[in-house]
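Intended use. Records like the one below are meant for learning the mapping from a protein sequence to its folded structure. Do not use them to infer anything beyond what is encoded.
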Amino acid sequence: MASYSPRLIDPKLQNLMATFPTVMINGARAVGKTTTAREHVSEIAQLDIPGTAAAFRADPDAALQRYDRPLLIDEWQEVPEIMGAIKRAVDLDSAPGQFLLTGSNDLSIKDKTWPGTGRIVREKMYGLSQREIYSPDKLQEPGVIEKIVSSSFDDIIVPKKPPTINDYVAMALQSGFPHLHFQKRTHETREIWLQNYINELVTRDVRTIGERRNSEKIRKYLTANAIQSATTISDSTLYDAVKINSKTASDYDEILINLSVLEMLPPWSDNLLRHIALTPKRYLLDAGIMASAARLNVDSIINDSKLLGNLFDTFAVAQIRPEISYKLSSAQLFHLRTNGGRHEIDLMVKLENNQLLAFEFKAGSSPTNSDAKHLIWLKEETGERFLAGIVLHSGSSIYQLDKRIWAIPLSSFWA
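Structure written out for the chain above:
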């Protein structure tokens, strides 16, 4: 078997299992949940194997007793009855690190089967970041986000051979699925894999969460979201494009969010600021799925400035999201847009101490003070709460644009 490639989630997962009796990892199918979970357990019960599932359905309490702990219960949603058995086991023995659960959807656990309090914690797992791909042996070292928080800008470096904008687009289109990085695949076979992933997503995966929906409508809705990833497009524009009503669109949003394909980044608001638009910002969690769903290639993206900006934003947030989730777990992510769009901040991070990090994403290689004008505005509005503003760009240089505002290449995340 191939050796295990470390993931950013590993230290946090280890800490959670040392504290809580049951930990659940949710995330999109094929992001590596099972592979990572195997590294933290003694035994595995794979409930997507019919015989194993049948044994757990027949007598889940007895089935649990046949395994050593910590036990990985993979694809737990195949046998929902297992949750009651885990509850009873943990009620008898609340020692930490007993069960690790993985699943490919984020359905709520009903109170009747799992009270949850004090017994279980959930952790979202994301696709591979470029740092996990290029620097797996250095994941314990502080990342760019941690260096920004500690104002260690001198410690931020860029690769010896920084990527061009074409390189960025190519990396984004490769997606964050381990299957597409740790196995040799051509561009053609990678696209075939992604198209099959999308086909299964809108058919089989939707049915696994109890939905019976028009798969072609969901596919069109996914495509519309892909084209508009990293935007604050209105709900009505989306469902008008697919010719569905608002109720159906809301249902589709919930389905795609439950399957960890779509994320709604909430708007940031504060008593200091008024006239803030309340529309969430839509993101497909994987830039490769974004491009494949919309049938985009490198040339079509490079030649369309709006698509290029959307892809660069989507790809950049995919690098930031796991760093925040696993390293600064109490932090919250938002975006900011004033009514009329006079001021707009692509991504805001609210830290535990109420301080703010703000990011603008520019696909260009040499951002100027003009590119930082919204960050400068936010700094003036929020005062000392404003820790730092960053313009993440596709160039090769790190430099200061204003007090507490820096231009940093996105490639620094995996240098």
